[in-house]
Design a protein that fits this description.
With about 140 residues, the chain is an alpha+beta fold. The chain is about 30% helix and about 20% strand. It is built from 4 helices and 6 strands. Helix 1 (about 5-15) packs across helix 2. The longest helix is centred in the first third of the chain and has 12 residues, at about 5-15. The chain starts with a helix and ends in a 6-residue tail after the last strand.
Length: about 140
Amino acid sequence: MPLAVSDACRECFAAHRDDCSGFAKAVAALLGVPLAGDADEITQTLRGGGAWTKLADGVAAQAEAAAGKFVVGGLKGSEQRPQNAHGHVVVVVAGALAHGAYPPAWWGSLGGTPGQDETTNLAWTPADRDRVTYAAATIPAAA
């Protein structure tokens, strides 16, 4: 049976709580899903297709996470309001939506507050949280 995404998040959090992209890549590695780059590059990967299926919104992200997929959300630094030198990514996990729109997730944070099973409305500002790109990848059976 594949490792659950939430279990992988717990396992990786302490070592990567200060680095969102490092955290996402560590979780991906435990699950056997290729993922590389900084947060901006990961966000571009989510939008690029291939192994990743772009999702409409946080509701779809939560549904895919509940179905056992590896789901990542991201926003490039240049797209944030105000713009930031660094993008931000989160790993979505199964659980209840906040305000009917924001899925639970885990994330590290460079200079900010990391999140452990918090909803994504807390990972971004109100100006940014509805513009996040979410995408899902299948976790290999051998993970």
